[in-house]
Each structure stands twice: as structure tokens, then as C-alpha cells.
Amino acid sequence: MPGAIYAEGLVKTFGDVRALDGVDLDVPEGTVLGLLGPNGAGKTTAVRCLTTLLRPDSGKAVVAGLDVLKQPDAVRRSIGLSGQFAAVDEYLTGRENLQMVGQLYQMRARQAKARAVELLEQFHLTDAADRPAKTYSGGMRRRLDLAAALVVSPPVMFMDEPTTGLDPRNRQQLWEVIQQLVSGGTTLLLTTQYLEEADHLAHDIAVVDHGKVIAQGTSDELKARTGGERVEVVVHEREHIRTAAEVLGGFGKGDTTVEEHTRKLTVPVTGGAKLLAEVIRELDSRGIEIDDIALRRPTLDDVFLSLTGHVAEEKTEGADEQGNKKTTRKDSRKETVK
């Protein structure tokens, strides 16, 4: 039986750009799916298709038991959507924004007012309830936007990069709100560029690149695909690199990666801190002086690099999901010692 959010073979093109290239998703009721990927990967296009804002060229989509293509009006009444940018009326107060949304959903005036009070309290906006939204900080606007998406208590919620641009404090507050929603039974599809956000919130993560789901699993499963834990060593002398690579190769569970210009060597391992102590002893016994050594877990860039061949921060000219000029990632070039 399909989950609360289900997609099969979704395809969407914009001119020559294939923004979605056969996307399959299945989100069980009451869970969170984190849609993870770099800018231009297809995350926002997937959300727009699933929320009836875009019609896919082909494929099937079912949300809250409703066919997205055949029952778009019913789908809209059953979902909440918080986009990348806060969609609030800056000249209305926070309270007025929420009441207006209730009225658009044909709630009675008294019911809309009561729901606004409830949401303002839940999202810690009561003190600013009667101030124009244009006076709100970025974090406050995001919370108001999310509150507006929840006026009718939808069973399914879509959030498109809800914490992008927020400071750590506001991001943490929004995470807490999202966790409250899910604990109350809401099904959530969350797009994000941040592995740590998906790690914190999602039951399952789908990695999207070039319009395709290229990997799916829990955060730990995805990290394991990048090699799990790894030891990073920076040697003091460049001439010790090869010897250090031999040492690390004896402890590693995969190839040793060498960055000559930084004298850094990296190898995937298992064994944690105990293994790190053994590596240090062996390097010392071989007379290799080190500037730094650390045991690390995969980061967002590690996952992207392992699954897509490029990292998130390095940019080059390309096209976004709708064919507009933008920046994308460059391939990373590192030497691998086998």
C-alpha cells in the first residue's frame, strides 16, 4: 500500500533541462523523508509537482491517498506547504496573516481567530502577534510562514529548505517545531542541503542529483556508504607521505586518499578511538612526525562526493532546475593510493 506521499517515475522537463528524471518516492504515514541534494538537483521541482504547483510530464503521484493529477483541489485541501521563502503579507500583523489563511480555507471567523492564537503561542510569536510582519526577523518570518501552513492541521506537510539562511538559534527552534508536528502524526517531506538537518529530523533520506534519486536510506546507512569513520593524518614532512600511506593502508577498510599539497592522508576505518591510538603508535615507530591526526565521521561533502563525484561548495557555471543560468559544483580531484 502506498505511503502518505508516493511518487513513481516522475518526469519534468524545462526546455532542454530534465529537472526530474524518473523520481520514485514512498513516505510512510507519520514519518519524515529528507530530500537531500545540491542546488539544482531537482528537490524543489519534486515538491512543486507533489503539491500541484507544477504538472509533471509523466509519472504517478499520490498524496494523502489522493491522485495529484486527477484530484489537485482535494490534494491542496489536505496538505501544508512551506516554501524556500516566507510567503507572508508584510503589511498584515502576524495574527492577521493567520486569520486570513483561515478565512481562505473557509473557516468561521471565531474558529480562525482561535486557531491563530493557538499557533502564535506554539511558534513563540505571541509577543509579536500584533506587529506588521515586515518588522519580523528572518527566523520569525519563517516561523510565521510555517504556522500559516498549519492553520488547517494538514495530515501531510511539505517543507522546502525551511532553515536555509537562518542562524543556529532559529534553526534549532524550527527543528523543535518540526519534531512536535511529527510526534503528533504529521507526515513530512523535507528538502534540505544540510546532512545534519536530515540526520536530526528524518527517518529516511533520499539523495537527489540531476533529477534522479541516486541513494536512499537512513542517515547512518548513507554515511556507511561513504566509508563510515575515517582517519585523517597530516604529516610534517612531504617525503613521509608514501610511508604514512603504507601505514594507514594496514589499518584501513578501503583506499587511502592523499592530498599532496596539504600533506593530508585519509582512510576509511572501523574501530574508533582504540584504532586511532594504534595508528599513532605505528606512525611513531616508523619515525613519521605528524602535525595533526583525527578520527572523523562523514560530512555533507563526503556524502555528495561519494555519491555524485563532486562537493557542495565548489561552483561552476551551469543551469538550475528550470534552465536558468546558475552555479553548480565542480568535480573534486584527489589522488587515491591503492
- Detail the poorly predicted runs: 313-319, 325-338
CATH homologous superfamily designation of the largest domain: P-loop containing nucleotide triphosphate hydrolases
Kindly report the average pLDDT value. Answer: 87
Rough shape? elongated
What is the count of distinct domains?
Answer: 2
Q: In CATH terms, what is the architecture of the largest domain?
A: 3-Layer(aba) Sandwich
For the record, the CATH class of the largest domain is Alpha Beta
- The CATH topology of the largest domain, please? Rossmann fold
Kindly report how far apart the N and C termini lie.
Answer: 46 Å
The largest sheet, given as strand count, sense and whether it forms a barrel, is: 6 strands, mixed
Q: Class by helix and strand content? A: alpha+beta
Q: What's the number of helices?
A: 11
Q: What share of residues is helical?
A: 25-40%
Following the backbone from N to C, one meets helices and strands in this order, namely EEEHEEHEHHHEHEHEEHEHEEHEHEEE
Read across the widest sheet, the strand sequence of neighbours is: 6-7-8-3-9-10
Strand-residue proportion? 25-35%
Q: How would you characterize this protein structure?
A:
This protein is α+β, with helices and mostly antiparallel strands and 338 residues long. The chain has helices at residues 43-50, 72-78, 94-104, 109-122, 138-149, 168-183, 195-201, 219-225, 241-251, 272-285, 300-308, and strands at 5-14, 17-27, 32-36, 58-63, 66-67, 79-82, 156-160, 187-192, 204-209, 212-217, 230-235, 256-259, 264-268, 290-296, 310-319, 325-331, 335-337. The chain folds into two domains: 5-218, 3-Layer(aba) Sandwich (Rossmann fold), CATH 3.40.50; 229-296, Alpha-Beta Plaits (2-Layer Sandwich). It has eleven helices and 17 strands. Helix 6 (168-183) links the parallel strand 7 and strand 8 (187-192). Helix 3 packs across helix 4 and helix 9 (241-251) packs antiparallel against helix 10. The longest helix has 16 residues, at 168-183. The chain is elongated and about 80 Å long. Residues 313-319 and 325-338 have low confidence and may be disordered. This is ABC-type xenobiotic transporter. Its EC number is 7.6.2.2. It is a peripheral membrane protein.
